[in-house]
Design a protein that fits this description.
There is one protein chain. This protein is of the alpha+beta class. 31% of the residues lie in helices and 20% in strands. The protein is elongated.
Amino acid sequence: MRRKSTGRQVTTSKPSGFQPSLFNLTTIAILGGVLVLGIGIGIAFSSTTTLTPSNVASREFIDTKAPNPEICVQYGASAMVMDARLFVTLNPFNVYVAQPSMRPGCVLRQNNWAILEQRKLVTSDQVRECKNRLNTFGFTGNLDSEKPDIRCIYQNEAAQNFFMSQPGAVAPTQETERF
């Protein structure tokens, strides 16, 4: 069966307000590929980061640089110790800060002070005095060297970790916060 042609041409026209879609499937695929490539490059850069003293990027790096790292991680926590001097003038009132020095250190938990006593690095009087003030001991320098710098230090309860106060952040357990 054949249809008869009427001789009229039928033209299809687009509605007057129609414009082709800016985000067709090809564009979406290209943007998705660029996103995946960007994530891959970011992971590659972060996994090949060189950890040097000028680029402290992880807790593991700080743990390895702590004095006596095996003792520090097992009985306390590794720390970054900052020594700075403040100069205060009264007339006129001004505060000046000297260039701070940074070095690796360690903070011991109170129940692990026996390590320092056994090595005769602190006396029982120093332990009693530090315990009475509800403080703990922190040190820099190797415990096996001539004279490590051991101090009774105070845990500042007012100090806050603003990284942990973000929505969705998981808080650490209480036992790891109190030394």
